[in-house]
Write a structure and sequence with these properties.
Helices cover 46% and strands 14% of the residues. By secondary structure, it is α/β, with parallel strands linked by helices. The protein has three domains: 3-219, HUPs (Rossmann fold, 3-Layer(aba) Sandwich); 245-323, Orthogonal Bundle (Tyrosyl-Transfer RNA Synthetase), CATH 1.10.240.10; 342-414, RNA-binding S4 domain (Structural Genomics Hypothetical 15.5 Kd Protein In mrcA-pckA Intergenic Region, Chain A, Roll), CATH 3.10.290.10. The strands form four sheets. The protein has a six-stranded mixed sheet with strand order 1-6-5-2-3-4, with helices on both faces. It has a five-stranded mixed sheet with strand order 9-15-14-11-12, with helices on one face. A two-stranded antiparallel ribbon has the order 7-8. The longest helix is centred in the N-terminal third of the chain and has 18 residues, at 89-106. It is elongated and about 85 Å long. The protein starts with a helix and ends with a strand.
């Protein structure tokens, strides 16, 4: 596939300044893509943008990845119905450092240039900016842009000059990168279309040069109708402190059948033949969630590394896929400590007490009834009601996964 063909197949084209997207093919591009630093981690919405970038890298383009140390201090009004709360400079600086580390991990194996727009704006003089940049922007088209007109129209919350100026700063970024790195293409989300055009128009006016921009659609969860953004409830973060690797993996396992093929195209690097093969197998038995399991592994490997992805896949296969508990390594079990109820007990502790203390049973009376009904499992084996306690001999690598029924689990560490 050519670059334009792959972009279209993966669903990455929303808007473009090209009259025909095939104009991308056969030319060397140096693109830039800016990443917001308003939070201390990127989300899977940002990950979609990174995967967009990686298509260009696979087709030989050069990349300049920008962490918005300056623009995040201002706040992008795009997609917001009210003014953002400004954050302290030290918070934004820490967020930029976190963003850069995540970008390095996701783009591992690719060559790219990392920049921070605070570098060329922190010493910028106001009068110079107004004369050299502001002079080239007409107020009429700016106030007609959707995200501005909605804020200043009837019922709008209004917009400060601070946020209004955001689009000029982004246009200036493109000009600076054009002059210093030869950037001739900007990539962004569809909510950035107006801001992207600011750079295209500024470069045309002050340099007499033609540059371009392409935006990708915002990724929407069809089940909830919400985008994958930082400010959305239940955001899925790339930082494992905010969203653990286990929960990250489970998110992808639980996506709906209506979304899974699109997500394989957006969030994995599988090619068309591989995606078709996965979906063919998936459609034979949708309840087996073959596509979701492949998606979960591919995305987790990109964000957290192959070893972590293989570990959480083993855990998932054992807990929910009927695989043998002997497949689990000690580190797999350790990683479960923060994911399911965890209890440390002494050798010989009564099972009635353990079931009650972990919450697998509401009371000791219910615990006894569960044991009598043989509804309790130790590392996948049905527990005998004749065995009243948990022993070290029952352990796998020092742990027992205690299960009630089909899906209620607790991790017991026997010392």
């Amino acid at each position: 596939m050519t670059l334009s063909e792959e972009l279209k197949w993966r669903g990455f084209i929303q808007q473009a300044t090209f009259t025909d997207i095939s104009q991308l093919d056969g030319k060397k591009w140096t693109f830039y893509h800016g990443f917001d630093a308003s939070a201390d981690s990127q989300t899977i919405g940002n990950l979609a943008a990174m995967m967009f970038d990686k298509v260009f890298l696979r087709h030989g383009s050069n990349a300049v990845l920008l962490a918005g140390g300056a623009t995040s201090l201002i706040g992008d009004p795009g997609g917001k119905d009210k003014e953002r709360v400004l954050q302290p400079e030290e918070v934004i600086a820490a967020n930029v450092a976190a963003a850069e580390e995540q970008l390095k991990k996701v783009f591992s194996g690719h060559k790219f240039k990392m920049v921070n727009n605070l570098t060329w704006t922190k010493n910028l003089k106001l009068l110079d900016f107004l004369r050299d940049v502001g002079k080239h922007f007409s107020m009429t088209p700016l106030v007609q842009r959707d995200y501005i007109s909605q804020r200043i129209g009837d019922g709008g919350a209004g917009i400060s000059y601070t946020e209004f100026s955001y689009t000029l700063l982004q246009g200036f970024d493109f000009l600076h990168l054009y002059d210093n790195y030869g950037v001739n293409l900007q990539l962004g989300g569809s909510d950035q279309w107006g801001n992207c055009l600011s750079g295209v128009e500024l470069i045309r006016k002050v340099r007499g040069a033609e540059v371009h921009t392409i935006t990708l659609p915002l990724i929407i969860d069809r089940t909830t109708g919400k985008k994958f953004g930082k400010s959305e409830a239940g955001a899925v973060w790339l930082d494992e402190v905010k969203t653990s690797v286990y929960k990250f993996f489970q998110f992808w396992i639980n996506v709906g059948d209506a979304d899974v093929e699109d997500y394989l195209k957006v969030f994995s690097e599988l090619d068309r033949g591989q995606v078709d093969e996965v979906m063919k197998e998936h459609n034979l038995q949708p309840s087996a969630r073959v596509a979701q399991r492949r998606l979960a592994f591919e995305v987790t490997a990109i964000v957290h590394g192959k070893a972590r992805a293989e570990s959480v896949r083993r855990i998932t296969n054992v807990l929910f896929g009927g695989h043998e508990y002997s497949e689990l390594a000690r580190q797999d079990l350790i990683s479960l400590k923060n994911e399911i109820p965890h209890l440390v007990v002494k050798n010989g502790t009564a099972l009635v007490d353990i079931l009650s203390d972990t919450g697998l049973a509401a009371s000791k009376g219910e615990a006894r009834r569960l044991l009598e009904a043989s509804a309790v499992y130790i590392n996948g084996s049905q527990f005998s009601s004749e065995k009243p306690s948990l022993e070290r001999a029952d352990c796998l690598h020092g742990f027992v996964i205690l299960r009630r029924g089909k899906n209620d689990n607790a991790l017991i560490e026997v010392r």
